[in-house]
Specification:
This protein is mainly beta and about 200 residues long. It is about 10% helix and about 30% strand.
Length: about 200
């Protein structure tokens, strides 16, 4: 098994794994890491020996866009993205979690929630019943999605934010830390505050 990435989020993911990776892939250069993992190369290199080893890969990249690019490069080369669920997380038996996602320490995913590919449900985040989280999105530490919230692809819900039940949040949205979202948010916007409002750049 190999991990994508070599920084803080990768180390958090490794701590949650029952089987530790033997090496890492990174779009950056080879660097030391606290786990002494071997640098295997760049995810987009079609000639890497790991593609012929029938191995699994986990995502350890915090940035939504980079994580999706790396995971899709692995899939394009025939690799399989595996989900990591920390032993302390609670996931309903009726919830669905797609490949390449990370469910962090103390996270909660409740009845009939659906988590897309390559998502992060971070430390102590709560995804309530019937929520949907789109591919490549990140629900940051202690954020709460109340019932039936829909989050689009590539979106970041900041730490300690709360999203009111039934709210729709678009693709590539940024919700600032500590925000309280009471209404729908269109694609590509940044919202902050309590109550959350669009941030005009």
């Amino acid at each position: 098994m190999y991990i994508l990435g070599n920084s803080g989020h990768a180390w958090v993911v490794i701590d949650s794994m029952s089987v530790k990776p033997v090496g890492y892939l990174s779009m950056g250069v080879a660097e030391q890491n606290p786990y002494s993992l071997e640098y295997m190369g760049i995810e987009t290199d079609v000639d890497l020996p790991v593609w012929s080893e029938d191995c699994q890969f986990v995502a350890g990249i915090g940035n939504n866009r980079v994580r999706r690019l790396a995971a899709n490069a692995v899939r394009a080369n025939g690799g399989v993205m595996t989900t990591v669920i920390d032993a302390s997380a609670r996931v309903s038996s009726s919830a669905t979690i797609s490949g390449g996602s990370y469910i962090g320490i103390g996270a909660r995913i409740n009845a009939f929630a659906r988590i897309g590919e390559d998502c992060i449900i971070n430390t102590n985040a709560i995804v309530e019943h019937e929520c949907e989280v789109g591919d490549g999105s990140h629900i940051a530490p202690a954020a709460v999605l109340l019932g039936a919230v829909r989050v689009g692809a590539g979106t970041m819900i900041g730490a300690n934010s709360v999203v009111k039940e039934g709210v729709r949040i678009g693709n590539d949205v940024q919700i600032g830390a500590g925000s309280v979202v009471l209404e729908n948010v269109p694609d590509g916007e940044t919202w902050v505050g309590n109550p959350a409002r669009k941030l005009n750049k």
